[in-house]
Write a structure and sequence with these properties.
By secondary structure, the protein is of the alpha/beta class. The protein has nine helices and 13 strands. Helix 2 runs antiparallel to helix 9. The structure holds arginine.
């Protein structure tokens, strides 16, 4: 009996040892808002897109399983800060305002705000022409900020497709949205076009909690590796070329 107990004890110690050894490699929780094609969106109920492929490739480099969590865009940074997730990848612009509360990795994509219009609309060419127009923005997106900073009122939507639908139904004159996503919607929805004028460039990056400096460093290293071994280029080609 004593021997059995001893063996049991040994097995238990070994199990604990392995469990602890795995501690370092524990899953990494990543928040996104899967309503932003081609960066993240749902296809047959599955989360897909450039950011999803990128974060999985980063997870592979780090030797950690990636667990995605889909939530509203304006809930992402609060979820990061309250440790519900460890990273946020969501085509998120590394804005000065956000940098006050979180850190961002090296940028991985550059975009601008653009104006989506009905094809028949010829009086809006640039941001200056938006005065007195019915403008749609997505709550908490940089487009929301740009329009607010211009002192213009806007209708706020929770997801880009909802704004695009309102534009198609004639409830809006214009939707201000990130370039790549806007191009995506225009391609898929005949009758829409982009105005000529573009907003300033903004950089997308992955958000990390301020105190997680080691994780920030590791993710940056992984991005550098993916950029130098051609993996990153492959992803760009898959989604944007
Ligand atoms: N780049 C914009 C921002 O940071 C929009 C990002 C929206 N992303 C999303 N997954 N819904 O505000």
């Amino acid at each position: 009996m004593k021997k059995v107990l001893k063996v049991c004890g040994l097995v238990l110690t070994m199990l604990m040892f392995f469990a602890c050894g795995k501690e370092e490699k524990k899953a990494i929780y990543v928040g996104t808002n899967a309503e932003f094609p081609p960066f993240e969106y749902l296809e047959d109920g599955k989360m897909v897109g450039f950011d999803i492929d990128l974060i999985n490739a980063i997870g592979k480099e780090l030797g950690r399983e990636v667990v995605m969590k889909d939530m509203s865009f304006d809930g992402l940074l609060p979820a990061l800060q309250s440790k519900k997730v460890d990273l946020v990848i969501a085509g998120m612009t590394a804005s000065e305002e956000r940098k006050k509360s979180v850190n961002f990795t090296e940028p991985y994509y550059s975009a601008n705000q653009v104006i989506v219009l009905q094809e028949s609309n010829n009086d809006i060419k640039d941001f200056a022409d938006l005065k007195d127009k019915k403008i749609g923005v997505m709550l908490g997106f940089t487009g929301d900020l740009v329009i607010t900073e211009m002192g213009l009122p806007s209708e706020k939507y929770n997801a880009a497709y909802a704004g695009i639908m309102a534009l198609q139904n004639g409830k809006l004159d214009a939707v201000v949205l990130d370039s790549e996503t806007a191009v995506n919607y225009v391609k898929k929805n005949p009758g829409l076009k982009l105005a000529e004028g573009k907003g300033e460039a903004e950089d997308y990056a992955i958000a990390v909690r301020k105190e997680d400096t080691k994780l920030l460093e590791d993710v940056n290293k992984a991005i550098t590796t993916l950029k130098s071994n051609g993996e990153f280029e492959k992803l760009l080609e898959k989604y944007f070329k």
